[in-house]
Amino acid sequence: MNATPPPDDAADDLDSLYRKGAARDASRPSARTRQAILDYSSRMAARRLDAQQADRPHPREDSRARRGLARGVRPSGPRWRQSLVVGSLAAAALAGVLIAPQFLPLAPPPAPPAPPAAPPAAGPAARQAAVPEPRASGPALQAEAPVAAVEEAAPRRTAAVPALPAAPAPAVPVPATPRPSQDAPAVSASADQVAPAAGAPASRAAAISRPPEPERAPAATDSVDARDSDGRTPLMRAVLQGRLDSINDLIRRGADPNAADFAGVTPLHAARARNEREIAEALVRAGAR
Amino acid sequence: MTGPGGAVIVAIMDAAPSSDHDLLRRYAGGDARSFEVLYGRHEKRVWRYLQRNLRDTALAEELMQEVWFSVAREAAHYRPSARFSTWLFSIAHNRMVDALRTRRFHVSLEALPADGDPAADALVAAPQYGPQAGAAALQLSAALIRAVEALPHEQREAFLLHVEGELTVDEIATVTACTFEAAKSRLRYARSRLRGLLEEYL
Q1: Which one of 1.10.1740.10, 3.40.710.10, 3.90.1210.10, 3.40.50.2000 gives the CATH number of domain B12-107?
Q2: Radius of gyration over alpha carbons of chain A, in Å?
Q3: What is the ipTM of this complex?
Q4: Which of A71, A83, B40, B173 makes an SS bond possible with B183, Cβ 3.0 to 4.6 Å?
Q5: A-chain residues within 8 Å CB-CB of B76?
Q6: Chain B residues touching A42 at Cβ < 8 A
Q7: Do A27 and B47 touch (CB under 8 A)?
Q8: Model-level pTM?
Q9: Which chain A residue has its CA at the smallest distance from B137's CA?
Q10: What pLDDT score does A105 carry?
Q11: In CATH, B111-202 is 1.10.10.10
């Protein structure tokens, strides 16, 4: 190849000649490819519509307004989300490493919501007796974790921080809250308080406040919802294979009917796209949206 | 509702003269028909870009799906900092590079079948462009397609990005991750070589 490119004369002639030829060229992708593309785009559009409808009456807005955090903070802004997650993790790590192991048993409970069963002045014997009674023996930082106490704490952000040291202690604040999914540590409990919408699917607030996966308590249905490299659960794969019996079995075993794959497609979307009416009905009966 | 062809898509195109950005924004908001319009606008150009670069219809079909799946997935994150076609063809370019890399699929002049390209043959054989339509012009177009496909890969891609994607030299440099001068040189060499290959017709 020469060092200097050839002159670019009469380039337009060649370009227009090619374009004329291309205009006559009737080749195009097959109808199957075209249909697959349009089907996929329709499913994605339907999913976005669903997500928008789910997000519209977002209860998080109310809770944010109540906490005075609404002004100047974008709800879905990545900076806000990032800073909250990083801040929470840093606070949890700091408190867990420094405060909890050393001072947790010594701190007096300032406002225990439950009746104090064990007097704090008792020595190691009383502490031993208090071990099987976590609510009664809960030290100060743990005692703040229940909903009632956190609700009354002034800034919600700071309320979440004291609750974090309770994370190593297994589910201490859980019995005080009536939520069904309280088998997670206290971090999750405060996350639910920030976004109290129990029914909101994939709520952004929950996603923001929820701790990263390693801190999540393993759910009983995790093996049922194990994902493959595409993020598909066994339920999704069964839907794609049209296996109604497997679907019913997985649903009985507690599989999440709304678990979307990495492309965002849920089992119900897939069933509808495949015109699998029975499967779609089974999924809807199981709570798929 | 639709035949195997794109009659409906063409009809939608005529009825909706929105910009590509508007269509993509509407699609990101959940309007599936906007995507159909967008797809109808760019389908053939992306297809020709892939097919003539790869010379493998099955692989081109596969990549065609991947490109448009990506567009559908990323629509909500798309920011109109550049033309839509630049974004679209950069996706197509990246998919193609990935495919070539993973499959070690190498397109070279030596690998070309002696019979030439089916698209070029179909063009010559198209009944609406029969002998009475100008055999010389058809032969020239078919020869040009073959000549394009005979170009070295980088030159062919630069040329196709320019004529199919209507990308400027600057945009070609961005999409193919090379310098402006390199993109300009590739385009010039491609044209020069095409002119040489088509000498008997021009």
Answers
A1: 1.10.1740.10
A2: 27
A3: 0.76
A4: B173
A5: 48
A6: 32, 35
A7: yes
A8: 0.47
A9: A21
A10: 56
A11: yes
